[in-house]
Amino acid sequence: MAGHNFLFVPGPSNVPNRILRAMAVPMEDHRSVKFPELTHEILTGLKRLFKTTEAHPIVFPSSGTGCWEAALTNCLNSGSRILASRFGQFSHLWCDMGQRLGFDMQILETEWGEGAPVERYHEALAADSQHQIKAVLVCHNETATGVTSDVAAIRRVMNDLGHPALLFVDAVSSLGSIDFRMDEWQVDVCVSGSQKGLMLPAGMGITCVSKKALSTAQACSHPRCYFDYQDMIRSNATGYFPYTPSIPMLYGLRESLRMLDEEGLENIFARHQYLAGGVRAAVQEGWKLALCAKEPQWYSDSVSAIVVPPEFNAAHVIERAFRRYNLALGTGLSKVAGKVFRIGHLGDLNELMLMGAIAGAEMAMLDCNIPVIPGSGVAAASAYWRHHSVPAGLESRK
Asked: At what angle do helices 265-281 and 247-263 cross, to 10 degrees?
């Protein structure tokens, strides 16, 4: 088909040409005396991205799922109790991993479309007078439902109760797109990946670990090898890795961090909020449809999950968009399969790129006989973007 594929799943996201060019490098000796320059620049840049001065960034050749496993197996002993909430497919998968690795999972079942239940975390932690809970898991941005949770509020609960558990946060679809504050929120382990806000191909797990978590890890006996924090930190201190890294991905990550620094994190967050506002206007004001996220407090600025009318199947919209219009939309997962389609609006994006996704989704819905008014989504998004202030991150490109 002529023209390029319109990629609007919530990850992998579009990879800018600048990053693709940076990755097109010949192979080199990853034990050379020059290689540490690349490693140290990346680790320094990641500290800025995580907003930390004290924690240690670590890069694994894996997906974010590998970093989930690393957090659990490095910082906890077998059988340790973990408090988590389940309100989407990815928070579910982290809970499932904990169970499969032999941890005692205390799961707060939450309606899909809501965020992490702060009051229920408070109740569970307050009831844990013997401090049997060793870790608290929170999914910052639930990619399956388009929901962002209040990590800072969870930390306040833990501090108010004086609970010593470690705080683990999944920021796979929020890091580099939605404000995240490692030090201020006293996060002990943050888990992320390369293929979303960092605008890279999939294949790199990116995590950041507090001094408290590293100290705890030294006393833990849960088996681990490939994902051992201490192996990574010892090698990284000299500029190297304990095993062969993906050299092209490292060059891409360095370029991504440079691009994020040039735009500025606060400008990036404002740009994502502004672009997400246009998508939400298309959905709610134009198409008169609902978001999976139940309340505005949970609306995600990196992905929107759009609920189709109950008599229709969202999978048909996704298939039609792809086969007829060369547009890739995110599918509904697990409990919301067939009920929602997702538009990812994170990474390297501007208004007109998102107009393509909105127009294509609208045409696909019309083809599937979903009663939306032709042109309504595009018109609503256009009105939103034309009448709202353009963030500096987009002004600088015009």
From this structure: 90
Tally of CA atoms within 13 A in the half-sphere of 170 that contains its CB: 30
Gap between the Cα atoms of 12 and 198, Å rounded: 10
pLDDT digits (tens, 9 = 90+) for 184-196: 999 999 999 999 9
According to DSSP, the residues that pair with 147 across neighbouring strands are: 142, 299
- Rounded distance between C-alpha atoms, residue 354 and residue 318, angstroms: 16
Q: How far apart are CA 256 and CA 194, in angstroms?
A: 10
Distance between CA atoms of residues 135 and 270, nearest Å: 32
Dihedral of CA 235/240/243/245: which sign? Answer: positive
State residue 398's pLDDT score.
Answer: 43
Domain locations along the chain: 17-262, 265-395
CA-to-CA separations, 203 to 11, 196, 243, in angstroms, rounded: 12, 11, 15
Q: Which residue has the tokens 């705080």?
A: 167
Give the number of other CB atoms < 10 A from CB of residue 282: 31
Whether residue 98 is predicted with pLDDT greater than 60 in this model: the reply is: yes
Q: How far apart are CA 44 and CA 253, in angstroms?
A: 12
Q: Could you give the count of Cα atoms lying within 13 Å of 112 in the half-sphere of its Cβ? A: 20
0.85 surpassed by pTM: yes
pLDDT of 351 above 60: yes
304 contacts: CB under 8 Å, gap ≥ 6: 146, 276, 279, 280, 283, 291, 293, 342, 343, 345
Is the CB of residue 205 less than 8 Å from the CB of residue 171? no
Is the separation of the CB atoms in 213 and 166 below 8 Å?
yes
Evaluated on CA atoms 89, 92, 94, 100, the torsion sign reads negative
Which CATH architecture does the domain made up of 265-395 adopt?
A: Alpha-Beta Complex (3.90)
Q: Which CATH number does the domain 17-262 belong to among 3.40.50.1370, 3.90.550.10, 3.40.640.10, 3.20.20.140?
A: 3.40.640.10
